[in-house]
Amino acid sequence: MEKTRIQRLREAAIPTDPAIRTLSTSTLVNTIGNGLFRTVEVIYFTLIIGLSPAKVALALSIAGGISLLFSVPAGHLADRLGPRNIGAAALAIEGLLLSLLYFVDTYVPFLLINIAMGIFGTIGQTMRMATISKMGSPEERVRIRAFTRSVTNLGIAIGTVFAGIALAFNTRQGYQIMLLLDALTYLLASYFFMKLPYIAPTVERGEPFGFQALRNRKYLGATVLNGIMSLHFVLQSVAIPLWVVKETSAPRWWVSVIMLVNTFAVIIFQVRVSRGSGDLKRGSLLFRRAGFAVALSCLLYALSAGRSVVMACVLLVVAMCVHVYGELVGSVGSWSIGFGMADEKHQGQYQGVFSLSWGLGGTFGPAFVTAMAIGLGQLGWIYMAVMFAITGMVMHRLVVGRATSVVSNP
C-alpha cells in the first residue's frame, strides 16, 4: 500500500507519459528563460537604453492588443494542419526575434519587434493549448494543463532568481546576456516541442473556413466571464504591489514574501487540485468557488490598510493564501470549461477563442485594477469582491444550463 502511494506521488511530480514529459520540458526550458529576461526587460530598456517607461508600457500594450487578433486564426491552423510543427516554428521565430532586441537602442524597432514577438507568442500559446486539448480524456487534459502550469511557475521562479544577478551588477552586458539566454531557451523549447508525437488534423484542408467558436454564444459568454475572473492575476502583478507600498504599513520587501506564497503554492498544489475535475459541472462548481475565494481575498487586502505593521503583514499573507486557493481551483475550473464546452473537431479554434479571455484581461486589466484598488481605495476592493463573486455564480449558471441541455438533447 505504501509503495503504491509513493508511486502516485512520484507520478504527480514526474508524469510517466513521455509526451507529457516532453511538453513539460519544453515549457520549463522556455519559462526559465522568460524569468531570466522578462523580469528585467523594462529596467533594461528604460535605465540602460534610455526609453521612457510610458513608451515601453505603450509598446507592450500595443503588441499585446495586436497579438490577440491572431489567436483564432492560429486555432484554425491547428485544426487543419496539426499543432506540433506550427508550434515549434512559432517558438523558434519568437526566439530569433527576441535576439534582435540585443541591437535595439531606439523606440520604433523596439515597438515593431515586440509586435512581431506578440503575434508569434500568441500562435505558440494557441498551439500548446490545442496540443493539450487533443491529448487524452477531459480529466487528463485538465491534469496536463495543471502540470504545465506548475512547471511554468517553477521555471519563472528559477529564472527570476538568476535575473537577480543582472540586477545586482546593473550593467548593459549583464542584461544583454540575460536577453540572449532567453532567446536560446526559445530555440531549445522549439526543439523539444518538435519531439512531441504528431497530432493529425481534425479538419479537412478543403473544408471552408468557418467561425464556429465565434458563433457559439454560450462559449463566448464563458470566454468573457473567464476574462473577468482572470483579472485576479493582474491584481497580483499590478495592484497588490502598489497597494502594499502605498496604502499599508508593511515593508516594501513584504511584496516578495506574499508573491513567494503564491508561486510555491501553485508549484506544489496545482496538479493535486486538478484531480477529478474533467467533468464540466464539476469545473463550473470550482469556478464558482474561486469567485467567492477571490472575493474574500479582496476584502482581506482592503482590511490591511491602516493597520499596524504586524497586523498588515499577517492580513496580507492570509489574503494571499485565500487568493491562491481561488487561483488554484479557478484555473482548474476554467480549463475544464474551456475544453469541455468546445467542439472536439474544432478544439484548436475554440482554444484560440478561449485564450482571448486571458489576453483581454492582460491588456485592459492593469488600468482597471489600478483605478479600483489605488484610485478608489478600500471601496474599490469591495467593488471588485462583488464582481468576482457574481462572475463565479454566473459562470456556474451558464455551464450548468448548457450541461443540462446537452444531457436532455444528446
Textual characterization of the structure:
By secondary structure, the protein is an all-alpha fold. It folds into 2 domains: 14-198, Up-down Bundle (Growth Hormone, Chain: A), CATH 1.20.1250.20; 212-410, Growth Hormone, Chain: A (Up-down Bundle). The protein has 17 helices and no strands. The chain has helices at 2-13, 18-37, 41-48, 53-67, 71-81, 83-100, 107-133, 138-169, 172-194, 212-215, 217-229, 231-247, 254-273, 280-303, 309-340, 347-375, 378-408. The longest helix is centred in the middle third of the chain and has 32 residues, at 138-169. 49% of the residues are buried. Mean pLDDT is 86; it is low at 405-410.
**Overall spatial form:** globular
Rounded mean pLDDT score = 86
> What number of domains?
2
CATH topology of the largest domain: Growth Hormone, Chain: A
Task: Provide key terms for this protein.
single chain; 410 residues; mainly alpha; Growth Hormone, Chain: A; 2 domains; 17 helices; globular; disordered C terminus
Question: How does the SSE layout of this entry go?
Answer:
Layout: H1 2-13, H2 18-37, H3 41-48, H4 53-67, H5 71-81, H6 83-100, H7 107-133, H8 138-169, H9 172-194, H10 212-215, H11 217-229, H12 231-247, H13 254-273, H14 280-303, H15 309-340, H16 347-375, H17 378-408
Helix pairs in contact: 2-8, 2-9, 4-7, 5-6, 5-7, 5-16, 6-7, 6-9, 7-16, 8-9, 8-13, 8-15, 11-15, 11-16, 11-17, 12-16, 13-15, 14-15, 14-17, 16-17
